[in-house]
């Protein structure tokens, strides 16, 4: 992702746009990642590698049990749709109403729907 952003920034810089980020700022982000995140990851990996393995506090049953087949709504695609698309859709519809009422000079009157969308976002 960083390389793509850097290349898009170079295109904006070549077109003399007013929105590109300075190369120094992009370089500082890389330096911060190399000096903060990378050492912490390496230290954490070395500490985790040296630790002894965790002991499970329960015994395993000697009889193998059958795992029941999952229902269709427990697969990944429906869960992704329910957990991602539903809150996004609620927020999108709410923002559409708010911005259309703002741009068209209307009074926004759907505060109950706004509260419901807010609760959905907080829950998810």
Describe the structure.
The protein is mainly α and 124 residues long. Helices cover 66% and strands 0% of the residues. α3 runs antiparallel to α4. The radius of gyration is 25 Å and the shape is flat. The two termini are 26 Å apart. The model has no long low-confidence stretch (mean pLDDT 83).
Write the layout of secondary structure elements.
Layout: H1 2-14, H2 23-50, H3 76-103, H4 111-123
Helix pairs in contact: 3-4
Offer a quick outline of the entry.
Helices cover 66% and strands 0% of the residues. It has helices at 2-14, 23-50, 76-103, 111-123.
Give the tags:
single chain, 124 residues, mainly alpha, 0% strand, 4 helices
SS elements, strand count: 0
> Radius of gyration over alpha carbons?
25 Å
| Element-by-element helix/strand order | HHHH
Mean pLDDT: 83
> Which quaternary structure do these chains form?
single chain
The geometry reads as flat
Query: In which range does the helix fraction lie?
Result: 55-70%
Q: Please identify the structural class as seen in this structure.
A: mainly alpha
| N-end to C-end Cα span | 26 Å
Poorly predicted runs: none
Sheet with the most strands, sense and barrel status: none
Number of helices: 4
Strand content: under 5%
């Amino acid at each position: 992702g960083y390389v793509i952003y850097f290349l898009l920034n170079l295109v904006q810089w070549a077109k003399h746009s007013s929105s590109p980020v300075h190369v120094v700022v992009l370089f500082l982000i890389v330096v911060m990642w190399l000096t903060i995140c990378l050492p912490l990851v390496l230290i954490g990996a070395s500490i985790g590698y040296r630790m002894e393995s965790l002991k499970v506090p329960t015994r395993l049953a000697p009889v193998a049990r059958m795992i029941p087949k999952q229902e269709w709504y427990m697969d990944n695609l429906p869960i992704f749709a329910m957990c991602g698309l539903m809150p996004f859709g609620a927020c999108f519809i709410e923002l559409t109403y708010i911005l259309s009422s703002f741009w068209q000079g209307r009074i926004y009157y759907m505060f109950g729907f706004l509260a419901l969308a807010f609760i959905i976002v907080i829950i998810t």
